[in-house]
Amino acid sequence: MDTGSSGSSSKIYRSSVERERRMCLKDLFSKLSSVLPPQPTKMSTNGVLEQATVYVNQLQNQVEELKKTKLQVEEECREMTSRRSIIFPVINITDLNSTLEVNLITGWKGGKGSSNYATL
C-alpha cells in the first residue's frame, strides 16, 4: 500500500483549489473597489468592505430621499392638473433659410410664463 503518492496528489489538489479561491476573492474585491468612490490611498481588504458598507448605506438613504421627492412632485403635478392650471410647453420652429428660429413657450395659467428664443 503506497499512501504517500495519493496523499501528495490530494495535497496538490487542495493547494490548487485554495489558490483558485484566493484568486477569485482577489478579483471580486477588485471589482468591488472599482464601483466605490475613488480613495486617496490603496485600501486593505477590510477597508474595502467597510467603505462598501458605508457607500451602500449612503445610496440607500439617497434612494429613500429621491422616492420622497418623487412622491411630492407627483402630488404637485396631480394638484396642478386637477386645477387645470398647467399649460404644456409649446415649441414654434421657423425656417429662415440659413437659420432656424426656435421658440419655446412654457408657463401656467395665472402665472407668468417664460419664452426662450434660440437662433441656429
Describe the structure.
The chain starts with a helix and ends with a strand. It has helices at residues 3-35, 45-82, and strands at 86-96, 99-108, 114-119. It is built from two helices and three strands. The radius of gyration is 31 Å and the shape is elongated. With 120 residues, it is an alpha+beta fold.
Q: Would you kindly provide a brief summary of this structure?
A:
The chain has 120 residues and is of the alpha+beta class. 59% of the residues lie in helices and 22% in strands. Strands 1-2-3 form a three-stranded antiparallel beta sheet, with no helix packed on it.
Return residue spans where pLDDT drops below 50 for at least 5 consecutive residues. none
| Biggest β-sheet: strands ordered side by side in the sheet | 1-2-3
Tally of individual helices? 2
Shape summary:
elongated
Distance between the termini: 91 Å
Order of helices and strands: HHEEE
Q: Nearest-angstrom radius of gyration?
A: 31 Å
Q: What is the overall pLDDT average?
A: 81
- Give the strand content: 15-25%
Query: Structural class, from helix and strand content?
Result: alpha+beta
Please summarize the sheet with the most strands. Answer: 3 strands, antiparallel
Number of strands: 3
Proportion of residues in helical segments = 55-70%
Labels describing this entry:
elongated; alpha+beta; 3 strands; 22% strand; three-stranded antiparallel beta sheet; 120 residues; 2 helices
Write the layout of secondary structure elements.
Elements: H1 3-35, H2 45-82, E1 86-96, E2 99-108, E3 114-119
Antiparallel strand pairs: 1-2, 2-3
